[in-house]
Amino acid sequence: MSSPPTSGATRKSPRFAGIINRHHLAVLLQRKDFFIENPEPFVRTPASDTTLQYNDQYALSYRDMEGSYPRYPSINDIQLDDEERDLWMDITPYMNPTPHTVQEQTPVSRAFLRGVITRKDLTPAHLKFCLESLSETEKQRIQGYFHRDRCGSERFEDVEKKLISINDNS
């Protein structure tokens, strides 16, 4: 696969824009949400419920994306011809821009591990590599945190203070 063409302008350094689920990609491929020209990212929005006509200016709605739940299309069942394989697809309207956020009720160990993974710019699939890439000092801080004061569930404020103190001592 060749790199995308540039329009004479200098290319910006890559930055994290978000993640997209595999089943959402399968839906996009099945619905053939393609463009002939390279689309402008972060411009398209879903059509409203009153819009009856679908065209290139609108992204698929949540109802379109989740309409086949729980039986999303299999990637093996999607057939694309050679012309369609050369077209562009704008996935930015369907991306989760904040996969590193956690809910307030998330266990501390999961939130801390997710923070470590995000800081190291790795995915959970590379967890073993992530843990191996931590310095001994970071591993000791993690072990020390999880062995201290573990007599029950903790309030969010207490967890936040402890995590801030760990980062401040580095």
Automatic annotation (TrEMBL):
InterPro entries in the record: Cl-channel/antiporter
Keyword vocabulary terms for this entry: CBS domain, Repeat
Gene Ontology molecular function terms on file: chloride transmembrane transporter activity
Top-rank taxon: Eukaryota
Protein name according to UniProt: Chloride transport protein 6
Species in which this protein is naturally found: Phytophthora pseudosyringae
